[in-house]
Amino acid sequence: MKNKIENSTPIRIAYIIGKMWAGGVEAVVFNYYRAIDHNKFQFDFYYDADSTVEPPQELIDMGARFIKLPPYQQLNEYIKQLRVFLRTEKYTIVHSHLNTLSVFPLYAAWREHVPIRIAHNHSVPGGNEFKRNAAKQLLRCFAKLFSTHYFACSEKAGRWMFGDKDFDAGRVYVLKNAVEFEKFRVSDAEVGQLRKDLKVDGKFVVGHIGRFTYAKNHQFLLDVFREVLNRRNDAVLLLVGDGELHEEIEEGIIRRGLEKHVVMVGKVTNPEKYYRVNDVLIIPSVFEGLSMTTIESQVSGVPVVISKAIPREAVISNGCRYMDMDTSPDKWAEVAIAVADMDVQLTKSADNYNIKTQVPKLETWYLNAIRMQYQSNI
């Protein structure tokens, strides 16, 4: 078996990450790669050819490899090419981060006799996306078919994907979406300069960082911000991100007469620099597997108002307030203004999201899984 535990060379693990678009799941797996011991492990990232961003040179310089596959919509060709790579590389572990879509790469891994096949779920179904939810529900039935191990980013995501029985039996490993805390400790000088660059210096800044998708609920966010503006005429809304609903969100801004009060930054590769520019973040998501923005906002010391769709595990400070989506936008605005001056203090549970404490746990899990597999083959 290639990559035996006794080998002095690093163990190469195939990471299936799908489409790269500078998003949350992608950020999580890259965080773990940066922090993992590269003398023990190296990752080969398999990504879709229609990704909107290029592989980070920083990770390539660390030893990561990026392998391009056809988009998974071209399913036959996707599986065919992936099988060729898996057959050539003879991985011990394939770790798929495609949520319910993991069934497809893990089928390829099963066909190529990869012994450790991890299905990792980062999501839950949401709201009114009937077609997408129906597809998720259907694929969820096959979530365990070709996987040998189950991972999730939260209890909520784990129970939805793999079921209460397996979760309660301890067969689902919850790997926290950990971040590098030091990256979010941006200096006052940097914050001040960025505020000037964005022309929000001296303003009351309400922020949102995330993709422009249905799940993030930007239209409700705009309603909340309009109420904030009614109370604070110095308010400005800072939107960091982009996505398929860009035009719809722009239209919503114009329809509400907010053009002079909204700054659209677009997609960035360094979101950690933008958190402290805000006085408060508002995250009214209709569904989330966890919500990295909620975690990162608190790590940055910025208060955040979130919807009840976000799991309780994401609350790691005194600076987080839950709101019901049935609550009126004016009440959301009232709470956002009230918490903006809070001195955010992290709780002990924040350690669960510190990459320095979490990456050794992942290393141990991989080594134990490989050891057990190796022993079973003796």
UniProtKB/TrEMBL annotation:
What organism is listed for this UniProt entry?
Answer: Butyrivibrio proteoclasticus
Q: Which domain of life is it from?
A: Bacteria
Keyword check for Membrane? no
**Xref: SUPFAM superfamilies:** UDP-Glycosyltransferase/glycogen phosphorylase (SSF53756)
**The protein, known as:** Glycosyltransferase involved in cell wall bisynthesis
**InterPro entries registered for this protein in UniProt:** Glyco_trans_4-like_N, Glycosyltransferase_grp1
Xref: Pfam families: Glyco_trans_1_4, Glyco_transf_4
PANTHER family, per the entry? SULFOQUINOVOSYL TRANSFERASE SQD2
The Glycosyltransferase subfamily 4-like N-terminal domain covers which part of the protein?
A: 23-182
The cross-references to Gene3D superfamilies, in alphabetical order and at most eight, read: Glycogen Phosphorylase B
Q: Name one GO molecular function term.
A: glycosyltransferase activity
Alphabetically ordered keywords of this record: Transferase
